[in-house]
Design goal:
Strand content: 15-25%
Number of strands: 12
Number of helices: 14
Order of helices and strands: HHEHHEEHHEHHEEHHHHEEEHEEEH
CATH class of the largest domain: Mainly Alpha
CATH superfamily of the largest domain: Winged helix-like DNA-binding domain superfamily/Winged helix DNA-binding domain
Distance between the termini: 44 Å
Shape: globular
């Protein structure tokens, strides 16, 4: 019978937090399929959390070399994705993001004529691996009198991402750049939407299970109809068990957590440990605050308090605030977790 402690154990293992089976950032991103990444430092730490041998500069290097990419996919926000996955992920989930964006297109006057003109200008400007930042693309658009509205420019650029025409380039200084997809991403096998749906379903439940169909719908941005179709395709490889009459799907992982496993850690904002699930009560059993508004620290897989980063002089200080007094053993583990976070950024 599936229990809440067992659910936490399997998620920690499947999400590669307890122990990581990979050595390179791109291998981890490929395994997980997508990792939410709108907060750049937290996105890097989400990789570093799982890979203790890495430093911040290692993740930056992998990103700048195009081994991991960052684009709008699934929900209308940024995600790390692997070059092998970016095209079929956009093909499958891009239309859902486009549907979500229609209100914003209408509000800011982004019509077919504006997009067509902007597309031609942007694609030409990026030709020959001429990586440009958003500010530089905006300037190109304005010089060509396409438009002079920041919101319009942002939405046109995002629309080209969702059409699979542009994606992330390397960082230029501290700014992100864009690249032509065909120049940045090697050609890969094409898939039908049905094949892509089956692949994403398998990827999600094998890396984030035990999880519910509603969890998968939330994470992927797909409709419940699509989610049910995906599970129907893949149901033979998953086990289904219930907690309080709620069905969870997963591939059983019978590994036990030991002292060598990481179960206490500083949780990045928007980390997949929380953001992968619509229902986050497994690790936030009594804390009503949404994951995207607090820095949580986790002890034995459960949120035990919050953390805050302060800069004092030339030093970075991480202050932790437990919800209730911690034992000495738990306090020591939290202190070790804080040191790991600081070491990652002190490259």
């Amino acid at each position: 019978m599936l229990t809440n402690p067992d659910l936490i154990r399997q998620r920690l293992l499947n999400l590669q937090i307890a122990e990581c089976n990979f050595s390179k950032p791109e291998e981890l991103v490929y395994h997980l399929g997508a990792m939410q990444s709108q907060d750049w430092n937290m996105a890097k730490w989400a990789i570093g959390l799982r890979m203790p041998h890495l430093k911040e500069t290692d993740v930056e290097k992998a990103f700048n070399e195009g081994k991991i990419l960052r684009t709008h996919v699934m929900r209308p926000t940024w995600h790390f994705v692997h070059p092998k996955d970016i095209r079929w992920l956009i093909q499958l989930t891009g239309p859902r993001v486009e549907a979500f964006n229609q209100t914003y297109y209408r509000k800011h006057g982004v019509d077919d004529k504006l997009v067509k003109r902007g597309k031609g200008i942007i694609l030409k400007a990026l030709e020959g691996k001429n990586f440009l930042t958003r500010e530089q693309l905006n300037e190109v658009l304005r010089k060509n009198k396409s438009n002079d509205n920041n919101d319009q420019e942002m939405l046109v650029i995002m629309k080209l991402e969702l059409e699979g025409l542009i994606c992330s380039g390397p960082r230029i200084g501290k700014k992100f750049s864009y690249a032509l997809m065909d120049e940045r991403v090697p050609k890969s096998k094409s898939y039908t939407n049905e094949e892509a749906l089956g692949m994403l379903t398998k990827k999600y439940f094998s890396t984030r299970g035990p999880a519910t169909l509603k969890d998968f719908s939330w994470w992927s941005g797909l409709s419940m109809k699509e989610v049910r179709e995906g599970m129907e395709m893949q149901k033979s490889i998953f086990t289904k068990e219930s907690i309080d009459k709620t069905d969870y799907y997963f591939i059983p992982n019978n590994n036990k957590l030991t002292a060598k496993h990481q179960t206490t850690f500083v949780l990045p904002d928007y980390d997949e440990y929380g953001i992968s699930y619509k229902d986050r009560s497994a690790y936030l059993p009594v804390i009503p605050t949404p994951i995207n508004t607090s820095h949580y620290f986790i002890v034995n897989g459960v949120a035990e308090g919050t953390w805050h980063r302060n800069v004092k002089g030339k030093s970075v200080v991480i202050e932790t605030t437990p919800y209730k007094a911690l034992s000495k053993a738990k306090t020591n583990e939290v202190e070790k977790a804080v040191e790991r976070y600081k070491e990652f950024f002190n490259s």
